[in-house]
Amino acid sequence: MLREEKLATLHSTVNMLSSLDIPHSPSVLLKTSAGVCLSYVVMSVVLGYFSAQARWLRKQEWIGYRKEWLSDVRAGLRSVLGTRAIVMANYEKSKEGFHALPQFMSKPLLLLPPNKLRDLLQKPDDEVNLYIVLTEWLGGKHTMESDIMRDPFHLGVVKNQLNRKLALITADVQAELALGFNQQWQVGSDNEWRTILAFETCGSIIRKGANRVFSGAELCHNEEFLKHLGRYVEGAVRTGSILNLFPKWMRPLAGPIIARRLMRKPLDACRQIALPVIQDRVQKTLSSVKDQVHVSNDALQWVIDQCIKSSDPLELDADRILRRLLGINVVALHTTSVTTVNFLLDLYSSPNADTYVEGLREECSRVLRQCGGGWSKGVVNDLFRIDSAIKESMRLHAIFTVGAIREVTKKDGVDLGDGVRVPQGVRIAAPSVAIHRDEHFYDSPYEYDAFRFSRSREHLDDEKAGIDKRSQGMVTTSESFLAFGGGRQACPGRFFASQEMKLMLAYIVMNYDVKLPGPRPQNFDFKHASVPDPRSQLMIRRREPPAKT
Q: Which is nearest to 107 in space by CA: 335, 334, 424?
């Protein structure tokens, strides 16, 4: 009877948590965190004094603490909504040395000074690991499911194939984005200003453009599939967010309940639509493996091809292939949507918005004209101002307030120089939100300067056009620009994501007038993530006459 009562209590708690609109409600998040505070106390006491990594961390300088009762617990609770403020305040006091940052229901982070980042970013994958951290953030096997998490080869397949084939897919993606804008950013016949929800509409457009490459033309043009796919991705992100409020030992119990509530219905709907398409694609591929004439150029096909090469019949199960396809969408769509909304809010809330937009339009018209009027990878690569406007927003409002996070996996630890050896199990990160606002790296760092990164590229002569120009692009990471992570484990999807976002911004400035109905809404911080207010609005109208793009 006692066990049944505990299960009922757990179900009740999870049902309450899964109804939250993460990350929309800061006050509810605090109450939720307080509700599991007792578990956090136990975890902090037990792990904080007996693990080797914790003993080492106790010797470091900690930030975010106050002299108060239950200081460990309360410091962790403050980190849920206050990580940005804690990191910024500490960086302003001291840029040097190592600092331990508490994390609610998770391992603390060892923040490195800027002069140590190169040492971290050059470490090989078998010494420091990002995948462990990302798996925890996303809810691990509860959002990705254990049978594909054991060997997530689909992520590597897409990384290798997609980056090589960007030139072949540019025109198709641009066409889908244009169709998405015509559907989501409609205006009346009188062409008056129309108010739209930025997150909702941009998310739909991004989903459509990306799935021309991920799912293929048939599923990309199925609006019901795209709708349920969006709900699945949102459910996965919310599941991961909620699970990270639970102690680790409770996640195997709570995870399936939360995932079932938030992800099961959209998953079943996606299955109903996509499984026949996938089964048909598998059969056609098996019957004509050597016939390359009708082979589709999309992630679905790349995954199927890899499944065939594996010689494991279980991998050719259509449901497993679908879940791999959904996993690709989970890691790709949410971050691109957040970044897109951020750069639109930053650009159009700037006091120099009119000047910036005119400069962007001039560049788009000029580059398109020089390249014959059609969209190609070469055209996108030459949009220096478009690239800069997005990169500048990523600098100012990166998705993560701490970047380049790694967990030390080498048994005897890793050496970061000056006699510092970090033991296995410790998580290391960069205070990226503070580095991106450091006057040592950027002039007027709190100002949105859309052309900050394009001025030098535009003035380079042709002889220096190669590596110098590329080094200023948004896909190039460095110790002072960490929005895509950095080093060997920088975001592998950044090349496709940057191309899609540049195509979107180019289409917007060429075809729409945009403004904000008021001041830029503040972003909402949740642990080490920062996202725009999902209620953020844009006011739009078609340009007269609209550009031919």
A: 424
| φ, ψ for residue 62, nearest 5 deg | -100, 145
Q: Which of 101-115, 350-364, 449-463 shows the lowest per-residue confidence on average (mean pLDDT)? A: 449-463
Which residue(s) pair with 514 in the sheet? Answer: 540
d(CA 86, CA 106): 17
Q: Record the tokens describing residue 397, joined without a space.
A: 């409002």
| CATH class of the structural domain 143-399+443-480+483-542 | mainly alpha
Tokens 């001039």 locate to 362
Hey, what are 483's tokens? 């929005």
Using one digit for the tens of pLDDT, what is the confidence trace for 517-536?
999 999 999 988 999 999 99
pLDDT attached to residue 152: 78
Q: What is the CA radius of gyration of the chain?
A: 24
Cβ–Cβ under 8 Å, residues 430 and 402:
yes
Read off the pTM: 0.87
SS3 474: coil
User: Which structure tokens are listed for 497?
Assistant: 């994501």
In this prediction, residue 22 has a pLDDT band, given cuts at 50, 70 and 90, of very low
The span from the CA of 105 to the CA of 112, in Å, is 21
Q: Are 512 and 518 in contact (CB under 8 A)?
A: no
CA distance 267 to 283: 23
Helix 353-370, helix 318-349: angle, nearest 10: 120
How far is the C-alpha of 171 from the C-alpha of 377, rounded, in Å? 8
Nearest to 142 by CA among 41, 14, 269: 14
Contact present, 330 and 323 (Cβ < 8 Å) = no
177 contacts 209 by C-beta, under 8 angstroms: yes
**In the prediction, which pLDDT does 153 show?**
78
Is 491 annotated as belonging to a binding site? Answer: yes
Task: Say if CB 402 and CB 111 are below 8 A apart.
Answer: yes
